[in-house]
Each structure stands twice: as structure tokens, then as C-alpha cells.
Amino acid sequence: MANKTTFTGFVRSNGGDSTRTTFAGSVPMQAQFAFDATAAAGTDVQVSSTDTRKVILPKNSIITGITFTGAATGGTNPTCDIGYTDNDGGTNFVDIDGLVNEGDADGGIATIWGGDTGAGASLGNIALPATEIIKIVGGKGSSAPTGGTISGIIYYYVKDSGKQGEGLPELT
């Protein structure tokens, strides 16, 4: 018997309300990532230092926060940027420092939520769900490290109408 299940549908919960009068909330999800701290900003991140798959999030993702370990070495106060690009290579939805802008690349563990110092313009912006399937990208900021890695977890959910039998919400 498999001990993991993957499916493509929306995940939401009424919190045990069998009458379904409560709002069916979206379930928060997480995606791990890692990248070379010396990579150029906008470089595709990968799942881990040993798993080279790209980190790709679904359409209508809203990224609310990031926890990362800044383990960069060298340089003077090295920084990192984390953002996203269209998975299909287009330019409709691209912001290579939209999640973390000039984050502390050698400061150990940091958690950044939308509105925090170091947050990019898109982090936590609930009015800006990803209109495309997106790839997460990362790389050095304006003060470049000479070695090391950045790894962490992205916290996100997929925007949904919360109505039974419906998929995506109508954005007005």
C-alpha cells in the first residue's frame, strides 16, 4: 500500500461542518527549495541539493511566506533574491525578487512573511495570485557571496472560491 497520495484537485475543508454552511478554506501547502548562493538572480531553484527537479507551483498560487537558511559564504554582507518566472518561458508573470529582495544570505535561519523587511513586492499579496504556472527562481543579490547555498520552504495556498462544485474564483 502506498504511503503517499498525490492528486490534482483543489484541497479545501469546511472544518467538520457537515451542513457545509461554513466557508471551505484552502489548505496551506509547502514546497522545499535550494539553490547555489552564487547563482545569478533569476536562476531556477531545485527541490534540494541532491534533487534537481525545478520547484513549480500551480496557477492561482499565493505565496504567503518563506523560511530559508542563509548559508552563503564570503563576500561582504552577502544577499540573495528569490522570485518567480512563467513556467512556459513567457514574460507575463515574472518578478525575480518578488518574494525575497536582498535577503540576508549568511544570517542563518530567517522567516519572511508579506510586509516584513526583506519581503519582495509579491510575497503575501492576496490580490496577486499567480496567473500562470510559475517556477521559483533565486540567486545572489546586489552584494554577492562567493560560495554556499540557500535552502528553505515556501508557504503557499491555491486561491479558490470555497464553493462546492466550483473551481477557480471569478476575480473582479
Brief digest:
The protein has no helices and 11 strands.
Strand content: 35-45%
Order of helices and strands: EEEEEEEEEEE
Task: Summarize the biggest pleated sheet.
Answer: 5 strands, antiparallel
The percent of residues in helical segments reads under 10%
Mean pLDDT: 87
- Assembly type: single chain
Shape: elongated
> What is the count of distinct domains?
1
Helix/strand-derived category reads mainly beta
> Which residues form runs of ≥5 with pLDDT under 50?
none
Radius of gyration: 17 Å
CATH topology: Jelly Rolls
Q: Give me the count of strands.
A: 11
Q: Assign the CATH architecture.
A: Sandwich
Distance linking N and C termini: 44 Å
Q: State the helix count.
A: 0
Descriptive tags:
about 170 residues, elongated, Jelly Rolls, five-stranded antiparallel sheet, 11 strands
Structural summary, described in words:
- The protein is an all-beta fold.
- The protein has one domain (27-158): Jelly Rolls, CATH 2.60.120.
- The protein contains no helices and eleven strands.
- Strands 4, 5, 7, 8 and 10 form a five-stranded antiparallel β-sheet that branches. It has a four-stranded antiparallel β-sheet with strand order 3-11-6-9, with no helix packed on it. Strands 1-2 form a two-stranded antiparallel sheet.
